[in-house]
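Much of what follows relies on a compact textual record of a protein's fold. A complete example follows; check for yourself that the lines match position by position.
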Amino acid sequence: MTTNDHYLARGPRAGIRHFTAADREEFTARARESAELHRPWLSPPADDAAYDAYLHRLQEPVREGFLICERADGGIAGYLTINNIVHGAFRCGAIGYGAFAHATGRGLMSEGLRLVLHHAFGAMGLHRLEANVQPANERSIALVKRAGFRLEGFSPDFLFIDGAWRDHERWAVTAEMVAGQTV
């Protein structure tokens, strides 16, 4: 486990930090251990080449990636990326995320998501974040609801996931909606 203490933000039990090459072994092992949990919703990088490609994409100016770590031991509990970041008048991004099996049901993703929201609406200067969630993914919908996201619509055949175009619900939150919330 990485004991990196370079957190961008800390909560009582979780901290968020950027991905590094040193996280490759732990991240890919956790992704392989969690394959059944993630199927059919997402496919995080599960081998060295996929992780390196993912890390490279996170260097693009339209992306920001965060590891959600347990503060007790620094271990990776999950991850969250902000994609398609647009500044100017829009100041928006779309999030994608996943918990690892060993950390589910412990509130670490909820705390990590709230930390990312505060970072995105503070240091990053964003105003709005969107999450597109497959309607049957009850855990993911519960996560965004707990964080204060509102349902804004439905997009048929929105994203190509697990070999097919999948319908998604569009959830969003703005800086004003989380202002004053604590982590």
